[in-house]
Amino acid sequence: MRMMPCPLLRETPRKRLAGRILALFIVFALMSVLGGFLLQSTATTADSPIAFIWSGAITSHSAQVKARVLSTGSIVRLAVSESTDMTEPVYSAFDTSEIDHNNIVTLDVEGLIPNSQYHYAPEVDGFLDLASIGRFRTFPSDTGTFSFAFASCATTGSNHPVFQTIRGLDPLFFFHLGDFHYEDIAVDDVDVFRQAYEAVLSSPNQSQMFRDIPLEYIWDDHDFGPNNSDSTAPGRLAARLTYQEYVPHYPLVAGTGDVPIYHAFTVGRIRFIVCDMRSARSPYYATDNGSKTMMGTEQKAWFKQELLNARDSFPLIVWVNSLPWIGVTGDDGWYLYTTERREIANFIKANNIERLCMISGDAHMLAIDDGTNSDYATGGGAAFPVMHAAALDRGGSVKGGPYSHGAFPGGGQFGMMTVSDT
To answer: Helix H segments across 254-296?
Structure first.
């Protein structure tokens, strides 16, 4: 494994990330994988009743696991234990595999201990499936240090060693920033979207990582619809419904059904604000004026309120924005939505949102900007660090910029962020 340079973020003009109450440090490690760790496979066996299983929506006291059962009508619950031998488990409620949901079951477990390692396994029709054991760690409830991995852009069903490398680093969770697959689906058919998820989760390296590392996921263009897709994508409804059906996810702010998938969650004292930059946006070729939007009216109002709430309650805000914020040219990204970008930057400036950083994907590169080039407020005053991580296995490309610490195109790449809250 080759490590890219890992500079500390320089202080921004407004000293963003400087905590008023605590010393908070962020280290962003950029990694380019030339070879994966040789890890023993724990893939589900042929006699397992489970096709795949993965976890997400972790909190300090709860978790959600979704699994696809091979048979219809099976009664399933989740056993969760602090022991690898699954003794003294805590159980979820029961769910039944139904053909209408392609035998996907949703298993929520509560009453867990903060910042604790757990192992889980599905119980199918009264039998505990030890071939499908996974693990997760609950989030800290207050201060502490944690690391998470993030990246985007993997060929459908990729079995690249980068996924085993991420698993070997044992991050608290893996944030997939979009292009989970590259099917570019242009039909409103949930079965087609289901097949795309199935193709990804049939990969031994990916399915193993997703069993052992909790997932947080927001889509981008190729996994939501065609290239550079937006609210006019033919498969918008099917994409939204299949995400809710297949992906373990936090509650969606807009509810369920035909809704965008923006949401927020907390790790310790860090607030993550996750935006859906595809399913409510105007087409990129629309005239760049006050009516052109990346976020949509309702999401943008929610986002601004989240910033205000987090400003007064959290030492750090991580804005999850799937595509390039910095730049003035290109065929996709915020450089085609400059009116709304300036509106948001002016809001950040006017309301003193000072402890903010952004993570992004889409562009097949590793890149850091320390705030030198990210300020789009009128007259300046809204700079914040921006960190890109991609591509998991695609070819290299550079979008946007410039970036103060450079841009490194390539595949087999991901980011690691460590937050130390003292």
So the answer is: none
- Whether 134 and 120 have beta carbons less than 8 Å apart is answered as yes
Name the DSSP class of 312.
T
Largest CA distance in the chain: 65
CB 313, CB 266: distance < 8 Å: no
3-state helix, strand, coil in the chain (%, to 5): 20, 25, 55
Beta bridge partners of 274: 263, 320
Give residues with Cβ within 8 angstroms of 258, minimum separation 6.
237, 240, 241
Verify cis geometry, omega within 30 degrees of 0, for the bond prior to 391. Answer: yes
What is the distance between the alpha carbons of residues 180 and 187, in angstroms, rounded to a whole number?
Answer: 18
Nearest-angstrom CA–CA distance, 294 and 322: 11
**280 falls in which pLDDT band (50, 70, 90)?**
very high
Q: Where is 117: in which H helix or E strand? A: strand 117-124
Secondary structure letter of residue 16 according to DSSP: T
**Distance spanning both ends of the chain, measured CA to CA:** 31
Report pLDDT digits (tens) over 36-55: 333 333 345 558 999 999 99
Rounded to an integer, what distance in angstroms lies between the CA atom of residue 132 and that of residue 130? 5
Instruction: Give the H or E element holding residue 119.
Output: strand 117-124
DSSP state at residue 140 = P
Tell me the torsion sign for CA atoms 171, 153, 278, 182.
negative
pTM of the full structure: 0.92
156 close to 183: Cβ distance less than 8 angstroms: yes
| Residues 6 or more apart whose Cβ sits within 8 Å of residue 65 | 53, 54, 55, 56, 78, 92, 106, 107, 108, 109, 120, 122, 134, 248
Q: Say what the pLDDT of residue 329 is.
A: 87
Tokens of 37: 């760790």
Tokens of 313: 């309650």
CA 44, 50, 54, 59 dihedral sign is negative
Average pLDDT score over residue span 355-359: 98
pLDDT digits (tens, 9 = 90+) for 146-196: 999 999 999 999 999 999 999 999 999 999 999 999 999 999 999 999 999
Nearest-angstrom CA–CA distance, 10 and 18: 11
